[in-house]
UniProtKB/TrEMBL annotation:
Encoding gene (name): pxpA
Catalytic activity: 5-oxo-L-proline + ATP + 2 H2O = L-glutamate + ADP + phosphate + H(+)
Entry keyword set: ATP-binding, Hydrolase, Nucleotide-binding
Family per similarity comment: Belongs to the LamB/PxpA family.
Organism: Castellaniella ginsengisoli
Name of the protein in its database record: 5-oxoprolinase subunit A
Any GO molecular function: ATP binding
Coiled-coil annotated residue ranges, if any: none
InterPro entries cross-referenced by the UniProt entry: Glyco_hydro/deAcase_b/a-brl (IPR011330), LamB/YcsF/PxpA-like (IPR005501)
Quaternary structure note: Forms a complex composed of PxpA, PxpB and PxpC.
Domain of life per record: Bacteria
Function: Catalyzes the cleavage of 5-oxoproline to form L-glutamate coupled to the hydrolysis of ATP to ADP and inorganic phosphate.
Listed EC numbers: 3.5.2.9
NCBIfam families for the chain: PRK05406.1-3 (NF003814), PRK05406.1-5 (NF003816)
GO biological process, one term: carbohydrate metabolic process
Length: 254
């Protein structure tokens, strides 16, 4: 199993999360590309720290929305969205090369992530961007979402992701952050929930029902309160139960 987190999101004097601590825990890092968060110097620092620890690098591409942290819905034209995604990946590839590492996958962020999980037009634009720049890049997306099938049909390899610190609806979508209980904060609860997912292939939805969820990677958001404690609890719980953790870049992906 892979364990990932969204990192490189600090911006100038505005500090977001604890990248150094998270990089000692996770196996893959989704690094901001400057559109929703992150500045070049900070992103480079995060990439160097990840390279030193052997953590795999993904481009955390987003809508151009610094003020809203990439969490506001947008409807860019296909021309704009394809170019925006290519631009962000290209920038991160350059910084990664300077840090002695490379970008192996792409994980969209925030509103873009949630939109392309089910919006075929915007999903096709993101897929087209990867195919135009580097078809060898793996696309990480929401487990159980149509996006994964669309990407496979477009010739991309995909990795299905589950969220440790987010609640799920009965149909396998993420509960909106506007709703109570959408974000989970108890490290022990989160860790047990992820062990249950790995063992059973199911997760308990917000209404108590069980949802089938086949995932290759688990995410703990780096900006969540107590993120480091949650990520550490998840890792310790999985490893103590015999689950090995490694970057999915070194595993077979679909």
């Amino acid at each position: 199993m892979d364990l990932n987190s969204d990192l490189g999101e600090s911006f100038g004097a505005w500090r977001m999360g604890d990248d150094a601590a998270m990089l000692d825990i996770v196996t893959s890092a989704n690094v901001a590309c400057g559109f929703h968060a992150g500045d070049p110097a900070g992103i480079l620092d995060t990439l160097r720290a990840a390279a030193a620890r052997g953590v795999a690098i993904g481009a955390h591409v987003a809508y151009p929305d610094l003020a809203g942290f990439g969490r506001r819905n947008m409807d860019p034209s296909s021309r704009e969205l394809v170019a925006d995604v290519i631009y962000q990946i290209g920038a991160l590839q350059g910084l990664a090369a300077a840090a002695g590492t490379r970008v192996t996958y792409v994980k969209p962020h925030g509103a873009l992530y949630n939109t392309i999980a089910r919006d075929e037009r915007q999903a096709a634009d993101v897929i087209a961007a990867l195919r135009a720049l580097d078809p060898g890049l793996v696309l990480m997306g929401l487990a159980g979402s149509p996006l994964l099938d669309w990407a496979r049909a477009g010739g991309l390899r995909v990795v299905a992701e589950a969220f440790a610190d987010r609640a799920y609806t009965p149909d396998g979508a993420l509960v909106s952050r506007r709703e109570a209980g959408a974000v989970l904060h108890d490290p022990d609860l989160v860790a047990e929930r992820m062990l249950d997912l790995v063992r059973t292939g199911e997760i308990t939805a917000i209404d108590g029902s069980r949802v089938r969820l086949q995932a290759d990677s688990i995410c703990v958001h780096g900006d969540s309160p107590g993120a480091v404690a949650m990520a550490r609890a998840v890792r310790q719980r999985l490893e103590s139960s015999g689950v090995s953790l490694a970057p999915f870049a070194g595993m077979p992906v679909s």
